């Protein structure tokens, strides 16, 4: 389990159970640990030079958050993808982001528009094959600028929580170069609608982008 390697000295920063939790969680989100893969307490404890107690505590937290599950005669495995959950998450995302764009259109500043322009220019490099991680952070940054422009603190908080659930799914989607290229074009169109202060078109484009993302993800999950 090389993806769980801990740099020397990091255990001085916070409790070992939190370090184990953080590393396993991030490895799952990044796709380094796959759905259905077993997590063996003994192996994890050895990797982190820890006893099994903090490993169990970390695994319990991951189970509570839905990342792993305990199966009879199999032990701990990474939880697979749930189509109903995907549908629900993307429906909520669409409702919240459409609300955000309606408010952002009225409140966005020239400085924020310039910031979006810079992000879109970076996203356009995806046409040349930038990796999924670069795409993920670029799209995440674009979303953050629009959400900040909306001036709706509660909405921002809700979306921040939702993005925790979305992270795993978005990274799977962006592992595909065609999807990265499409997402870059979609965000360029969204930006133009924002510049034009065309609320109806901006909302339509946001909805289309989210629907396309969900449909692409569903296709990938069904293929697996």
Automatic annotation (TrEMBL):
This is DNA-binding GntR family transcriptional regulator. Residues 14-81 form the HTH gntR-type domain. Transmembrane segments: none annotated. GO terms for molecular function: DNA binding; DNA-binding transcription factor activity. PANTHER family: GLUCONATE OPERON TRANSCRIPTIONAL REPRESSOR (PTHR43537:SF24), TRANSCRIPTIONAL REGULATOR, GNTR FAMILY (PTHR43537). It holds the Pfam family FCD. It comes from Anaerospora hongkongensis. SMART domains: FCD, HTH_GNTR. SUPFAM superfamilies: GntR ligand-binding domain-like, Winged helix' DNA-binding domain. Keywords: DNA-binding, Transcription, Transcription regulation.
């Amino acid at each position: 389990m090389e993806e769980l390697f801990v740099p020397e000295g990091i255990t001085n920063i916070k409790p070992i159970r939190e370090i184990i939790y953080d590393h396993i969680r991030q490895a799952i989100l990044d796709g380094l640990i796959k759905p259905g893969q077993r997590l063996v307490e003994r192996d994890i404890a050895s990797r982190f030079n820890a006893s099994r107690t903090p490993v169990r505590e970390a695994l319990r937290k991951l189970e509570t958050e839905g990342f792993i599950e305990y199966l009879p005669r199999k032990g701990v495995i990474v939880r697979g993808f749930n189509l109903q959950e995907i549908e629900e998450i993307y429906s909520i995302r669409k409702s919240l982001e459409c609300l955000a764009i309606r408010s952002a259109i009225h409140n966005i500043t020239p400085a924020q528009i310039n910031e979006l322009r810079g992000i879109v220019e970076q996203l356009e490099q995806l046409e040349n094959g930038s990796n999924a991680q670069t795409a993920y952070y670029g799209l995440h940054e674009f979303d953050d600028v629009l959400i900040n422009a909306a001036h709706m603190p509660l909405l921002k908080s809700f979306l921040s929580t939702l993005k925790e659930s979305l992270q795993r799914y978005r990274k799977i989607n962006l592992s595909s170069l065609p999807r990265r290229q499409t997402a870059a074009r979609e965000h360029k169109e969204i930006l133009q609608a924002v510049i034009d202060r065309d609320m109806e078109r901006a909302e339509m484009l946001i909805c289309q982008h989210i629907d396309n993302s969900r449909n692409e993800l569903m296709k990938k999950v069904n293929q697996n």
